[in-house]
Amino acid sequence: MKYLSANILQDFEFHDAHFKLVLFENNTLTISVQYLNIHKNTEQNPYLTDMEIEVARITFHEFRTKSFEPGRTWKQDANGKSYTDEPQVVFEGKTAEDRLLNELRVGSTVFEFGSLENGNYYFDGAGDEPWFQAQFIFDSVVIEWDEYRKTAWYEDRPFK
Known about the structure:
Distance between the termini: 38 Å
Shape: globular
Order of helices and strands: EEEEEEEEEEEHEEEEE
Number of strands: 16
Radius of gyration: 17 Å
């Protein structure tokens, strides 16, 4: 591939990116990503604005799923206060891995992607589940792509 970024996730905006499983083998996770944006002023972006990448491939080495939390149904009381009467369920181990891989097989839209103080990475998304959070760790990550698609969707939107 023409462009490559190793271990520099902060150069990218993952909001609204779409993750799709390519391969998970020997703790190496490879996903195809659409709607991934790269920041301006990064080594790999020759443009003056944040840009959307046509299609990226992300490979996580020594990838391990730590937890998977599916969403719960929320209700609103007469005063407009939100609540849920469903218990919080957090899967770990093989069950968490299986659930995350299922979400990646069907394809998942990312709402938020980042790292936590405990060293885990996470992403909030929607796929088969209407909302979930997966936490994971990895030793290294490589993002590769060949071309840019257009200016990032948020570049032309005024924020107030």
